[in-house]
Amino acid sequence: MRSHRAVLRIVPALLGLALLAQPPAKAQSAQSPVQSKVQSPAQSRSASRDTGRLDITREVMDDLADGKVVAVCKRFSPDLQDALTVDELAFAWNQLIQRSGLFQKQISQTTHPSHGTSVYVARSQFENSKVELHLAFNDADQITRISIDQVSDLSPASMEESARAVANLLRQKDFDEVVARFSDDFKADMGPSTLDMSWSHVISHLGEFKSVKLATKDPESDMVDVSCDFENGGATVRVSFDPSGKISGLWLLPAESEAPKSPEI
């Protein structure tokens, strides 16, 4: 019998590209408004580095759109080159095109902190949806992490509200309404009766569903973790969304758990 560590069946919603760890970025101290007007040499170097990496991120997105996969892979760190081949990247890109349509234009390049490092993001418009490319770099400006997938136009707050509502529907055992929020592909894989059976298995391990707490969107994907209290402890309801805002994946995991890597019941 499976443990409650993997209880709801997963339909992968993200295009899985190799992700490798990067050394934590150095912490930056907060500045007062007066101090921020004059940058120190270290701050100037950091700003220049970010500008250069955003340029690389834009160029990588353009190269992928032009089919220059080999050129993209040449920017990888040695570890990432070992983990993600040219053929694998080309396959992942073609899978994305089948779902999102052809590339049209880049919209923006931004950076944000994630798990102790800086992530550089290129958002683009494709025929059927928006797509984000996420990159992380080492000190030599080689790419150490890459991911790319469709993204929803929903705001983080809207996703968090929707995920919290799903968790409450599960608490009420309103499985018909939960499934009504699924994407067509997910509905084909998990209907109300299947969800009911999986949820009953969950409750047999975790006990009564007591309350829904905090909902937090992942900064790098259209996925929200909802912290919940059960009779026998805490757990996380994880909800992923497709570009239209429909639910494309659903998990129940131990608190502070990472996303599972393969479908399970």
Outline the structure in words:
This protein is of the alpha+beta class and 265 residues long. The chain has 2 domains: 33-151, Nuclear Transport Factor 2, Chain: A (Roll), CATH 3.10.450; 156-254, Nuclear Transport Factor 2, Chain: A (Roll), CATH 3.10.450. 37% of the residues lie in helices and 28% in strands. It has 9 helices and 8 strands. The chain has helices spanning 33-36, 41-65, 69-73, 78-83, 86-100, 156-171, 175-180, 184-189, 192-206, and strands at residues 103-114, 117-126, 130-137, 143-151, 209-217, 223-230, 233-241, 247-254. The strands form 2 sheets. Strands 1-2-3-4 form a 4-stranded antiparallel sheet, covered by helices on one side. A 4-stranded antiparallel sheet has the order 5-6-7-8. Strand 5 and strand 6 (223-230) form a beta hairpin. The longest helix has 25 residues, at 41-65. The termini are close together.
